[in-house]
Amino acid sequence: MTIVNRSAAVVLEKVRKQYGVVMAVEEVSVTIEAGTLVTLLGPSGCGKTTTLRMVAGLEMPTAGRILIGDKDVTLLPPNERDVSMVFQSYALFPHMTVLENVSYGLADASLSKARKLEKAREGLRLVGLDGYDERLPSELSGGQQQRVACARALVLEPQVLLFDEPLSNLDAKLRRRMREEIRELQQKLELTSIYVTHDQEEALAVSDKIVVMNQGRIAQEGTPADLYERPADSFVADFIGAANLIPCEILRREDALAIVRFGDTELRVRAPRISGSAGYLVVRSAAVALADAGAARGLTATVRKATYLGGHWEYTLDTPFGSLFLAQPVGRRFEQGATVALQLDPQHLSVVART
Ligand SMILES: Nc1ncnc2c1ncn2[C@@H]1O[C@H](COP(=O)(O)OP(=O)(O)O)[C@@H](O)[C@H]1O
Ligand SMILES: [Mg+2]
Questions:
Q1: Three-state SS letters, 49-98
Q2: What is the position in ligand 1's atom list of the atom closest to the CA of 42?
Q3: Considering the chain, what percentage of its residues have pLDDT values greater than 70?
Q4: Does 296 have pLDDT greater than 60?
């Protein structure tokens, strides 16, 4: 193989970026282990792109330090860092062929022209585009253009690969396929990657670790399962997996569990990091089974809306503690207006603080 893996760890230490009075990134400290993919996930405007651009050297931090493979790069210009970035817009040159686009960035004077073309072909082969050398970008689909952009970043043999919402110009089906391709390539080549997205499903699908950002700060970092099953606060619970949040009273703690009450119901649920007595019960579809009213146990609710989506039903339910939005298997059908019993599985419930 002609393309060499030079992946290195990246460390951000209390990184901040201020534009005048705008605090784009307030304080971000995170470690991206060599060979792993870490996603920055959060709503528009939370500081993801700014953080990525500081790693690339396209923005200078107002405070804090950035290390790539133990080297302090905080104040180095982009061309003195070994990073390459894949943009949402692909940024391909329209008048150059695919092969020229990929070899263009290989500015290293010590490489012969033939060597550069060899590397570019290797890059195209890695992204599944051999045979496309002579095409123009306009002769490629959106997904193929995105792969060219990936190949162009790969041939630079960066220590770190950066992705800023790389799939947002693609349709839903292609997005799913491309995210799998990117993840496969990243794992196969063990590339250190920082991946920015606002799409929680995409983040869950591609990441070793997810850093959830909210207003320039880290709300929580962890594996996809950590964030989904043990959200640190209501922001994370709502952002990842769109949970229903039911206000509850936290009666007492038992190790990593808490006994909570809402209405007349008491439950023992996961509560990894809370104090105080006001909480939200985090209720996702997997935690609820619907049954006919009058079933032995359970709370009752009324079906306000039922939507058939082929693979599952979506229900909006009116309950004594507010409305719930749930996906349920297609096997059973509950009509609009029906009274149903809600059975909660404490195994799949958690609680976060209500502040
Ligand atoms: N060059 C800039 N000048 C002033 N404000 C900026 C600049 N770039 C970004 N911001 C602001 O910083 C915040 C974070 O932006 P950004 O990092 O682009 O968010 P994200 O990528 O998460 O959507 C936003 O409020 C944005 O308006
Ligand atoms: Mg952005």
A1: HHHHHHHHCCCCCCEEEEEECCEECCCCCHHHCCEEEECCCCCCCCCCCH
A2: 22
A3: 98
A4: no
For ligand 1, atom 25, name the residue with the nearest CA: 45
pLDDT at 295: 63
Q: For the chain, which domains are there?
A: 10-229 (3.40.50.300), 243-353 (2.40.50.140)
Residue 165 Cα: closest atom of ligand 1: 21
pLDDT in tens, 323-354: 999 999 988 899 999 999 998 898 888 898 88
Window from 121-135, 150-164, 265-279 with minimum mean pLDDT = 265-279
- Sign (positive or negative) of CA dihedral 261, 263, 266, 269: negative
**Within 6 Å (CB) of ligand 1, which residues are found?**
19, 22, 24, 42, 44-50
Among 15, 16, 22, 218, residue to substitute to test ligand 1 (most atoms within 8 Å of Cβ): 22
Asked if residue 204 has pLDDT above 90, the reply is yes
State how far the Cα of 39 lies from the Cα of 22, in Å rounded to an integer: 24
Read off the pTM.
Answer: 0.89
Q: Which of 168, 124, 172 is nearest to 147 (CA)?
A: 124
For ligand 2, the distance from its centroid to the CA atom of residue 213, given in whole angstroms, is 12
Which pLDDT belongs to residue 126? Answer: 87
Residue whose Cα lies nearest atom 5 of ligand 1: it is: 19
User: What is the Å distance from ligand 1's center to 59 Cα?
Assistant: 11
